[in-house]
Write a structure and sequence with these properties.
- With about 575 residues, the protein is an alpha+beta fold.
- Strand 11 and strand 12 (about 210-215) form a beta hairpin.
- It has helices at about 15-25, 80-85, 100-105, 160-165, 175-180, 230-245, 260-275, 295-300, 315-325, 335-350, 360-365, 370-375, 405-415, 420-445, 455-465, 470, 480-490, 505-510, 515-520, 525, 530-540, 545-560, 570-580, and strands at about 1-10, 35-40, 45-50, 60-65, 70-75, 115-125, 130-135, 145-150, 150-155, 195, 200-205, 210-215, 250-255, 280-285, 305-310, 355, 450.
- The chain has 23 helices and 17 strands.
- The strands form 3 sheets. The protein has a 6-stranded antiparallel β-sheet. A 6-stranded antiparallel β-sheet has the order 4-5-6-7-11-12, with no helix packed on it. The protein has a 5-stranded parallel β-sheet with strand order 15-14-13-16-17, with helices on both faces.
Length: about 575
């Protein structure tokens, strides 16, 4: 896990060293173990390393035949198989990323089709005068770029491009509306005009500082052949993925939420490694919290894992919320970012790698919207996300918030049944632009790599081809996974109702609502689209997600647009923002 960045100028001159310094400094938290650069004419590549595999010889950039140069962020899990298939190849390192250079030399732009893993990479081919960017099919690892009159630049995080002065910090109102209503933004465009995402599964070709070609690889089959599967089939597919995701030369562990996804990973990690798994779970203060940490500890005891329970308090929320908003430069208002950040901080002192349960709901159909899609009663068969988070509040300018999502719905529905269409839509938008951004930023802020065994091409192909009846009933989702876990780890109570993972936002924010509402309303970021009475109406609802959406955006805007440091508490940052306006 690392941070990458680079520049290709149009005028043929060498990139400015100060720009490269700024890119490297901005990505330092992603790679505290080392820095590497390569400058060749108008092209420069920057790498910040978090050493996970090949601690001795795995520094980047990596070099290959005909002058090829590579910087990569991620893990290539099928590296041993790739090396075995190239016995005559003169590898120089044991880095899991080095085979990429030889795959490109052999297969050209089709090289990414041979990779199994999570990655965002940049490869420079001097003989062809081209720079290639590629991102894994599910978008587990992030990658962003800008095109300007001066040339092309890319980085693992938007804030690096901003800090390097390669693009101005401005707001796209359409993306802001998406963020506040959906909790994330869709497609390639980000909330910053001019900064775009390399899409999941996309390969870009850049020549003379301009994009000249794009390729896309599918994350899911367009028309899967539906096949029934046994519990043994599921055991094999998940077991292989977990085994691959455990490849590491540093200590690893697990985030244990109390749900069936992380419990499944716990059991498979225990079986695969034969060692005591190190797990971390989180709880909250107050009886009203959706706290499954005690259940998580019970599951950990059942397999002999070493489990640590940390607690997030109301005081923690008020002190850390500005820092969490600051680390989410590509923003999401998903409140699950809060416990994820605290878990990342806890892991940072003892682990470099942790397995996480993200993707289990999308692959095996765990959400209520999936059950509604197959319900026999027409009343329940309503499209997903018809209402936004802040619907019903007059005085908020959030027009057009669903346009990008509607386009994605049409695109992903082609040739699929209603359940498959919803799963494909979530894998295209919700998963990479909310859950995986949240995971990446909140863990990398603490130098921790998060791995997601459920988000794997083989697991996805298996799960997507399951019959609907193996996924959902009218009252439960993830049926096959629940049955599998019930046989192996019944202490996880896989058929019990899940309480959730989010902190008691409603209570915490309501306790200060009278003070917060005017501070939030006075924030320049909020004042740009919301009248004061609208902000007051939101805080009067007492709804945790609604109030957090506005509060998060005010804190986020204060840091990323106004440049206000995030080391103060919530009220101090909001007060500074109102003065700046």
């Amino acid at each position: 896990m690392c941070g990458i960045a680079g520049v290709m100028r149009r005028d043929g001159r060498k990139p400015d060293p100060e720009v490269l310094d700024a890119l490297a400094a901005a990505l330092g938290h992603r790679g505290p173990d080392g820095e590497g650069r390569h400058v060749a004419g108008p092209v420069a590549l920057v790498h910040r390393r978090l050493a996970i595999i090949d601690l001795e010889t795995g520094d980047q950039p990596l070099f290959g035949p005909d002058g090829l140069v590579l910087v990569a962020n991620g893990e290539i899990y099928n590296d041993p198989a790739l090396r075995a298939a190239m016995p005559a190849t003169p590898f120089r390192t044991h880095s899991d990323c080095e085979p990429i250079l030889f795959l490109y030399a052999a297969h050209g732009l089709d090289f990414a089709a041979h990779l199994r893993g999570m990655y965002a990479l940049a490869l420079y081919d001097p003989s062809a005068g081209r720079l290639i960017l590629a991102r894994d099919p599910f978008g587990i690892k992030p990658l962003y770029y800008v095109e300007t009159a001066a040339g092309f630049a890319f980085a693992s995080e938007p804030q690096a491009l901003l800090r390097a002065g390669l693009v101005r910090a401005e707001i796209d109102p359409a993306r802001r509306a998406e963020l506040l209503q959906l909790k994330f933004t869709t497609g390639a465009a980000t909330i910053f005009p001019g900064i775009r995402r390399v899409l999941p599964g996309e390969t870009l070709v850049i020549e003379a500082g301009q994009i000249v070609a794009r390729r896309h690889s599918a994350r899911l089959p367009a028309r899967p052949v539906i096949r029934a599967a046994t519990l043994a089939d599921l055991d094999r597919v998940l077991g292989e993925s977990v085994a691959l995701h455990l490849r590491s030369d540093v200590p690893y562990g697990l985030f244990l939420s109390g749900g069936i996804d992380s419990a499944s990973l716990l059991w498979l990690m225990h079986r695969t490694s034969g060692e005591r798994v190190q797990a971390i779970t989180i709880g909250y203060d107050g009886a009203d919290a959706d706290d499954e940490s005690e259940a998580a500890l019970a599951v950990a005891r059942a397999v002999g894992a070493r489990a640590e329970r940390i607690v997030m308090t109301e005081a923690d929320f008020w002190s850390a919320a500005p820092r969490i908003a600051a680390c989410l430069d590509d923003p999401t208002t998903d409140a699950a970012a809060l416990p994820t950040w605290f878990l990342g901080r806890a892991a940072g002192g003892q682990l470099k790698v942790t397995l996480c349960g993200e993707g289990g709901d999308e692959m095996f159909a765990g959400y209520g919207r999936y059950r509604r899609a197959v319900a026999p009663w027409r009343f329940f068969q309503r499209p997903a996300r018809q209402r936004g988070v802040l619907d019903g509040i007059p005085g908020l300018d959030l027009s057009g918030w669903r346009d990008g999502f509607t386009a994605a719905e049409r695109r992903e529905a082609a040739g699929r049944n209603p359940l498959q269409a919803l799963q494909a839509l979530d894998c295209a938008e919700w998963l990479p632009n909310d859950l995986l951004i949240k995971l990446d930023r909140c863990l990398m802020a603490h130098g921790v790599e998060g791995r997601t065994p459920f988000i794997d091409p083989d697991v996805a192909a298996f799960a997507f081809a399951l019959p609907d009846a193996s996924k959902v009933s009218w009252r439960l989702g993830k049926l096959l996974l629940r049955r599998w876990l019930a046989e192996r780890l019944p202490q996880a109570r896989p058929f019990a109702r899940k309480r959730g993972f989010k902190p008691p936002m409603s209570r915490w924010i309501a306790a200060r609502g009278a003070r917060l509402a005017p501070l939030v309303a006075a924030s320049p970021g909020i004042a740009a689209f919301a009248r004061r009475e609208a902000v007051a109406a939101v805080f009067a609802t007492g709804d945790g997600q609604m109030t957090w959406s506005l509060l998060f955006y005010a804190l986020w805007h204060a840091h990323h647009l106004l440049g206000i440091p995030s080391d103060g508490d919530v009220e101090a940052v909001l007060a500074a923002a109102s003065r700046a306006g």
